[in-house]
Prior knowledge:
The chain is an alpha+beta fold. It is built from 4 helices and 4 strands, in the order ααββααββ.
Amino acid sequence: MKTSKRTHVIQISIVLLALFVTIFIAYSKGKDDVVNRYNTEEKIESELFTNVKGTTVTGTPQSSFSSKKTFKNLKIEIPSFASVYDDKKAESVKATQIISREDLDRDITSWLKKSYNKKEAAKITDHVEVWYRDNKIIDESYN
């Protein structure tokens, strides 16, 4: 009778130990996922150039379960700051030249390159592209 009770106690102890180990592993993996879960395309798009109509963020979700990054690829497309007609070749004659588009494009391209944060991008994606109008300004991979 004593061995039966002892065996039963050992079995319960093993089950409880396995349960605690499982909870610990799930918590330590899950705490990173909680941070990454909020780096969605919509969240990034709502934070970047919200006052520039037509800015889009598209991403390919990470397929690897072991990766801590949210995206495999991330593409940020920013339309012209100068005029809504700049990006439409057929309507570019309607674009105003009050602000020199060439100077503005050059300066915004320079500003985007200087303000780009490689460390932050590497936290959420393996590859990032930033486009301004039809020009690829940034094309970086992080492995």
